[in-house]
């Protein structure tokens, strides 16, 4: 996997993925930014959320669960001193579908957290990661 980060101006950067996609990252005005894009640490948190959601949806589809929507709400706390790593992350899954089995949803989240989501497992080296979920009927 490859990536390239090109400095634009101030603290704004253009990230380019190996698959050819781009994203603007920037900092707040008080640090020389213009607020043109997400912060790099926000991008890291978004990556974890996308990684775990991908796993959970794949596992539920293989388990023949009729999922119509899935949202992962993340809340993270960072250390107060440098390096300001994530110390706590909570992932709240809102899974919508028809006749969803709560045990299968719980198992899919656990499998993602413990076995499949490389982003969660890496961030788990410095942060305590917790999960919960709610089911909604489609």
Automatic annotation (TrEMBL):
Q: Which PANTHER family match?
A: PROTEIN YHFA
What species is given as this protein's source? Answer: Chromatium okenii
User: Which SUPFAM superfamilies does this UniProt record tie to the protein?
Assistant: OsmC-like
**Lineage, top ranks:** Bacteria, Pseudomonadati, Pseudomonadota, Gammaproteobacteria, Chromatiales
In Swiss-Prot or TrEMBL terms, this protein is called OsmC family protein
